[in-house]
Amino acid sequence: xxxxxxxxxxxxxxxxxxxxxxxKSGLIELTNRFLGTPQEFICNSRPRxxxxxxxxxxxxxxxxxxxxxxxxxxxxxxxxxxxxxxxLNKFDVIHxxxxxxxxxxxxxxxxxxxxxxxxxxxxxxxxGAVIPEHVDKVSGALSYISAATGNKFVIIIDEWDVLIRDExxxxxxxxxxxxxxxxxxxxxxxxxxxxxxxxxxxxxxxKYKTQSALNNFDEYTMIGPGLMAPWIGFTEGEVKVLCExxxxxxxxxxxxxxxxxxxxxxxxxxxxxxxLMLQGTFxxxxxxxxxxxxxxxxINMDFDGLRxxxxxxxxxDAVAVIPYFFQNDxxxxxxxxxxxxxxxxxxxxAYNQKKNQAFIPNEEIRFEFAMATKVNKWSELISFQxxxxxxxxxxxxxxxxxxxxxxxxxxxxxxxxxxYNDENSLSGVLTIAFLAAMDxxxxxxxxxxTGRGFADFVYLPKPAYREDYPALVVELKWNRGAETALQQxxxxxxxxxxxxxxxxxxxxxxxYDKKTKEHSCSIERISK
Length: 528
Hints:
single chain; alpha/beta; five-stranded mixed beta sheet; 18 strands; elongated
């Protein structure tokens, strides 16, 4: 049993001992399927606090010869799988955390050497004369061991991308590190001594031009999670169970912490959910992850359309993004899409695979973006918020003439600036018009457009404001009349369903006359 080679299971034991532990051992069933196949090289990237290290520790505890984990996995999902006994503690495992190695080495320049020397020393302690004295690379040592013994290794690297992220401008360090990884994983020889390679971090594998630096790896990311979708982060079903146990309102938890759409799963940030369950407070736990400072320079980059895209998303809209050309580092930004793609990988944005759209996933992240933009005092946002606040006050006062005038003003001023296309410009204007509502209301619930009209926007007040602020249902119409919009809201009978979220419900119908360019408004209040 060593530090990096054939480690014990204490790190995973620590996770299992926690007051809240969600069984993710089904991941092992998947990695067992990949053992000794072309799919044995896996890069699984996720934001901080999404359970990356726990998964890596679990895999090490399961495969490592350096421990007996039978009792540890007793009762977990993987125990029921046919492959469980076959591979339990049967492999030589190399497991290390690059972040920890970076700190122990003392500098970025010494990190690769520290990792290499530590692993070689432990391998020599186990396999002795099998490794010739002249061998100075981990890959070479593993090749000699495998040739002499027939043993194959499971290699698990946590925080694999630290040197790519933290040393973004240090080309010499990055080149040395990429060479280390290529020697370890690329080519025919590594397939002889590796049974499974599992690397995990925040970023996907660094690209050189259009090619991955390790193009034999299958990548599972926030853009394309694939088979890994349910095994990193908490699924909706798992969160429901926790809500029942800790007596939390699931609908409220969903509004605060849901929003990541990975394949067919809604995935929640485990750190936020666990903190809520144990501390009992709905708030943003995101700033505790250590990545908050990284978004401040990103959202202030002077790329065309970036700031307006951030404002759109703050207001509850989604924006188109092309994520395929991002170089998977922290410096090679060529436009708005690269910045938005990095924010998706960092967890600050969610991604809709079917629509190729980015959006702010939930109230926790919406709060973080709002704080970041306030710190930077965006003039565009200040202008939007000032007019939006006046509009919200007019709506709450049920001043229909003022609402119509303000909507017309906002529509005329900002349609071209915000860069909406003709089809959804009116809908887009509404999200901007009600931007100030984010201080008191959750992200608007929005349906799909239907026919020539646009579906409702439902604004639910946050718990602290439910006694003083009504729920809002806003319906937009194009050349149909404000009364028609109001009638459509009534027909959908939203009011009854929304009364539990506020003392009253305001039905707001807004119409835009394409010929006259004028807006009209009707408002009706329904009390409990």
